[in-house]
Amino acid sequence: MRKIILIVLIFLLFFSFGCSPETGETDVDYRKGTHGIVMNFMTDIPPATMYDNMPIDLIVEIRNKGAYPQPNPITGWAINVISPTTKGIGTLYLSGFDNTLIMGMPKQMSIPKLEGKNPYNPEGGYDVVSFRGNIINFDSRNIDSYNANFLVTSCYNYETIASQTVCVDPEPYSTKEKTKVCIIPPSYSLSGGQGAPVAVTKIEETVLSNKIQFKIYIKNLGDGKIIDKNRLNIDCPYSLDYTNLDKVYVSGRVSGYSLSCKPRNPITLTKGVGSVICTIPKPVMSKSAYTTPLQVKLEYGYSSSIQKSVEILNTP
């Protein structure tokens, strides 16, 4: 009897260990979507109508709805990590109002350190930034009312990582009859974004005599502007023009090879759309087709804006 009880207890103990895979991870595909840093004004702060000769607070809610940066190197891309010394990924700029009527408001604030969507936080990071100033006494300027327009513009660095399983066939045109695990399609379509405002939308593969070519299509799917990441802190948001807009840096790897791409970085998009041709040497150690992930990294700066109007009245 004791042996039977002991066997039952061992079985229950084994079953409890095998059926409790609570790791805190979710099945959410966090590398989906077309958003990066998203801003909103906090409701009624400030109210739509207020009076002069008093403080004014402008509170901006900031959410990271994309997948960059990651809190730990789970992607394998070592650069895509938040470090303890990271202060933020960009800056908020405040403009649009008369600073002789509303005084003391800071013109810029750092975007807080916000992690991107990940298996442990599928919603991404959240924080608020507060701009505070003081409204002067309108009587001193003989002003009855003033319609203040507050424009908040974000300028930040961001990255996209796109991954697509491709078919690598060193001899796609061979007349020898053989069974293959895959056939190169006319194109690979990537839809829904990769958890960032700039996305890889399509890839076309061509096998040449001594190399394999991938034509990678890129598109701005967000509601903001793409900026050269190396000019972000210099030109954004007040000195943007054709020399620093729509610039994307492309890199990647497949089957152990780093992609060699043309045109050289940064590539320039036209009206938010562009493409780049990347190659790898034809694998010499393999004579048969096989599948492998192609990873593409896009690096860029990004900028978007929100606006709020507040009517300020002379105190009766």
Q: Could you characterize what this model shows?
A:
The chain is mostly beta strands and 316 residues long. The protein has two domains: 37-157 and 304-313, Immunoglobulin-like (Sandwich); 160-301, Immunoglobulin-like, CATH 2.60.40. The protein has two helices and 18 strands. The strands form three sheets. Strands 2, 4, 6, 8, 12, 13, 14, 16 and 18 form a nine-stranded mixed β-sheet that branches. Strand 9 and strand 10 form a beta hairpin. The longest helix is centred in the first third of the chain and has 17 residues, at 2-18. Mean pLDDT is 87; it is low at 5-26 and 74-86.
Instruction: Label the CATH architecture of the largest domain.
Output: Sandwich
Give the total of beta strands. Answer: 18
| CATH fold call of the largest domain | Immunoglobulin-like
Number of helices: 2
User: What string gives the helices and strands in order?
Assistant: HEEEEEEEEEEEEHEEEEEE
Category by helix and strand content = mainly beta
Radius of gyration: 27 Å
Instruction: Count up the domains.
Output: 2
CATH class of the largest domain: Mainly Beta
Strand count, sense and closure of the main sheet? 9 strands, mixed
Average pLDDT works out at 87
Query: How much helical structure, as a percent, in the residues?
Result: under 10%
User: Are there runs of 5+ residues with pLDDT below 50, and where?
Assistant: 5-26, 74-86
What percentage of amino acids are in beta strands? 35-45%
The general outline is elongated
Distance between the termini: 92 Å
